[in-house]
Amino acid sequence: MVTTLITTVVTLLLASYYRQWSNDSVNLIAPTGGYISAAELILQRGGEPLLLEWLLTFERHPSVNAYVFDDQGISLLPDVPLSVQDYAFSSDSYVAKVNPIGRSEILVKAPLQGYDGRVYLLVVEFIHPLVVFNLPEYLAWGALASLLLFALWSFVLSGYLTRPLRYMQKTVRSFANGDWSARMNPKFLRRKDELGELSREFDHMAAHLERLIKDQRQLVSDVSHELRSPLARSAIALELARFDAVPDQVEHLDRIELENQRLNDMIEDLLGMARLDTQQDHSHWKRVDCHKLLIHIVDDAKFEHQGSDLNLTLHGELSQVIGDAKLLASAFENIIRNALLHTAPRTSVDIDISSRHENLRIIIRDHGPGVEESKLQDLLRPFVRAESARERLGSGHRGFGLGLAIAHRVVLHHRGKLRLHNHKDGGLIVLIDLPIGPTSKSN
Question: What predicted TM-score, i.e. pTM, was given to this entire model?
Fold first, then answer.
């Protein structure tokens, strides 16, 4: 904007000097002959009163003024500019004065003779355009117009520059949430600037990461399938070994059987996770009453963990979602078993169900030691366990670090969210938000 203002001022100054160097001055002086003849004719026919009336008409003219001085040097009009007075009484005899940067750009004077023989002096003033146009106001409007122009241009330019960044931010967020197919808009990839180059590099990186993740998941699935055959043969060999086993060997065979069963369970969990990553068919989904589902899970948990205290509370009447009842039951069961494992002795596991906006919210809280804040999100990854879980593997819990990971995948599969928090009074909180389907509100 400063550059624009400087350019405007310089242009106006050059235009002023150009008017002096060109024949504009001649073009302005030429009409004064008509003014002089008209003034002398009016003076001879009507005297000073009619001439004064004629002079007053020039007040409505934006760029020309006329003044008349009598033979005593007194002006017929009041408030004569000092520059006009100096020129009227100067020694230059009827010579036009040109001043390109003054108030009076051109001054022309001529004698007038009345009918009574008195001599008057007519001075015609051509006012400088910058004075007529009110330079401060003109510059103010120019500055405002420049500001608006620059604001509009900045808005367009910022949109042009930031639109790819906003789209990239949205794409990165989708990618971070597990949408590995998220890519930049093709029109941004065709740009020739740095943002286009950045978009192409991001797409290249995203494609590489997607390929690595798919290969990793495929490897886990393939390895899990391949492990089932040797485990099945191992189970057969174990049963054959029992026929010839002596009493001292039974304990070791039982241990081998337990470990084989744990491996089978882990492989089943891994295959279940692989299916969740690839399964897209939701045609079998139906309305699931999460409250009834949790009642059955809590009853089973109480039966398996005698003396455990589980409190299930439903807030409101709405507890239905659209989904796969078997998968949801598996997720809830994994979380509740994990909570029972970590809650302190003689404390409860609290389960609350409520509806919030368009989601069904399920909160499961234990009263255990909690987890370090820096490790909370790691618990949602496979084969990650809290330290307290490592210390309690002897309680019969499988302890592969897959329970929360599977629950997280199930919730994501149902387009929901699962988050972990530490309670301020101790214990871990698992917060699940599941979207309520359009038909789940009606029973």
Answer: 0.49
Which letter, b or e, does each residue of 318-348 get, where b requires 16 or more Cβ atoms within 10 Å of its Cβ? bbbbbbbbebbbbbbbbbbbbbbbbbeeeeb
Q: Which two tokens stand for residue 344?
A: 């302190």
For 385-396, how does the pLDDT look when each residue is reduced to its tens digit (9 = 90+)? 665 544 444 444
Q: How confident is the model at residue 21 (pLDDT cuts 50, 70, 90)?
A: very low
Fold classified for 286-435: Heat Shock Protein 90 (3.30.565)
Give CA–CA dist 317/361, Å, rounded.
13
CATH tag, 2-133: 3.30.450.210
Tokens (6 digits) for 181: 């197919």
